[in-house]
Amino acid sequence: MQILTSTAELRARLRTEPNIVFVPTMGNLHQGHLDLMHLARAHGSCVVASIFVNPLQFGPNEDFDRYPRTFAADCEKLTGLVDVLFAPSVTELYPIQQTVFVEPPSVANQLCGANRPGHFRGMATVVLKLFNLVQPHIAVFGQKDYQQLHIIRQMVTQFNLPIQIIGGATVRAEDGLALSSRNQYLNNEQRAEAASLFRTLNHLRDALLQGESDINALEQAAIDGLTARGWQVDYLTVRNQSDLLPATQHECVILAAAKLGNTRLLDNVEVNLPKA
Questions:
Q1: Confidence of residue 64 (pLDDT cuts 50, 70, 90)
Q2: N or C: which end of the chain has fewer CB within 10 A?
Q3: CB atoms within 10 A of CB 101
Q4: Cα 100 to Cα 96, 121, 147, 158, distances in angstroms
Q5: What domains can be seen in the chain, in order of their start residue?
Q6: What phi and psi values does residue 21 have, to the nearest 5 degrees?
């Protein structure tokens, strides 16, 4: 595995590669990330990963400074899985102040975007910049960040980028908790409680599959249940898979973001609603 830190080195290394698959990350890698690397390897001859904690997608009161950075351990985990690791500094990727941004679709102001203004603009901007540097044929992202994946797909489609986007299934702990770099912020009591988020989504999914049709009431009951257990729920909602608007179609996804203490967790469960 080659570790490159400059854009010039990266471009020189990849210039003659015919089939590049790219997996961007912010580091602090867990098994979910490693599964994405294996998925990437199945789709191309040159697997490129990146580690970059992107300041543009963190708000002023978010955890950019304390976001876990574990570069040495990450490199050990990636050895043998990827061909090139791109790990630029902030000044390398933003040599001048970034004043040109990707403006994501209006859904970026809902769900996570409602609580994290500017997050998806910063995310889409750095992903487009990385796409330009790596020039992949395929890029792989986890489905746990469902809204992020949707926005990236829209960006690729609307900018006519010659990149296929593949979503990797969410990797979970034995109790169902979606793996996340932020899980390590949880204390023992919170970690035991955290799996109830996935259980709540599955309970709502089962109710929908059994034909219950009052989606608003089901959403509110799920929110109330989590709140009673000590969660601070940012949102829990049923949306169309295709556009992330409130559910009007059969192919839907249940999306949630909620906090335990100061740790914000995301999860989602897809569901195909029964036809009338």
A1: confident
A2: C
A3: 14
A4: 11, 10, 22, 17
A5: 2-168 (3.40.50.620), 181-268 (3.30.1300.10)
A6: -115, 130
CA distance 153 to 167: 10
Indicate if 33 belongs to the active site: yes
Confidence of residue 67 (pLDDT cuts 50, 70, 90): confident
Q: Are 142 and 167 in contact (CB under 8 A)?
A: yes
Strand order in the sheet with 263-272: 232-240, 251-260, 263-272
pTM (predicted TM-score):
0.95
In the set 30, 33, 203, 250, the catalytic residue is 33
92: Cα separation from own chain's centroid: 23
Neighbours of 235 (CB within 10 A): 16
Which pLDDT does position 31 carry in this prediction?
95
